[in-house]
Amino acid sequence: MNMRFLDACWGKPVDRTPVWLMRQAGRYLPEYMAVRSKCTFLELCKTPELAAEVSIQPVDILGVDAAIMFSDILTPVEPMGMKLDFVPGPVFESPVRSMADVEKLRIPDMEQDVPYVFETIRILRRELASKVPLIGFGGAPFTLACYMVEGKGSKDFAQIKRMMYSAPDVYAALMEKITMMSMEYLNAQIKAGAQCIQIFDTWGGILSPADYERYVLPYTAKLINGLNRMETPVIHFVKGAGAMLDTVKKAGGDAMGLDWHVNLGDARDLLGPEMAVQGNLDPTMLYAPKDIIEREVRRVLKENAGRPGHIFNLGHGILPTVPPENARFMVECVHRLSQDRVEG
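Request: output the structure for the sequence above.
Response:
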């Protein structure tokens, strides 16, 4: 098995920089769309054979160094008692707005309520045994709470912030329940065979550094510290966290995902050599001509300056209209240019 991704997570030297892409199993691939045409998004998530098939596609097509299981961060929220639909974005029929709403939420029995997730992992471990490691994932408590309280995506997140400031007891009760649910969900993924866990905090960056430290950090830290992670590295990705990386570091984890708004070298200087990093090419760069893609890959690698503990990735998910050949070229550039640095 190609182990350079896991080695980089642990900060070990590698022969060339490992690379994978957030949302690498997705709509930009014709092969994915062929599978997706047969079912709804939720049906795809809940059908292990199909979810495994689309998870493996980018490994074979792009040559990435890790696979990530195909699912959605809201998968374990639905069995808490919240009806979920995608139209096309996620929508909850009845958002959480009161203590009574929080009290109605249940902690799912993971093996009983979302068995398809763990069957997908087991299939992938068998299929990837001679290829690359498998990443499991989940949403950070705050990002899950944003969707559960807003009911869908939001431009201002007024409802979740109103709850934080005006009903802190309701907010705390909700975050505690989500944190416990997420801990059980991610530990079940590790038990099923996930070799790395990525925690996505897509909306963590909507808060000020002070509010992040007060309202988010304690719950993410509790989640990470509650994972059975002795041999399973944890990547913590908070989008928009460039101004508070030192605070985000306090949550724990073995690697920190960086978006494209920060200089990767400066981030590494701040975080220290014990924290691996992942990132951080602007996703829209994959629309550029190939010479520009190569230039920007070279820039990110130069910012890392050959330090161990770097996983190359985009600063957020790959966009659905990116040409697959550009994504493949980017992966090839990372491998070629980073190997040149090692040999040079």
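Strands lie at 67-68, 84-86, 90-92, 134-139, 196-201, 234-238, 255-257, 276-278, 310-311.
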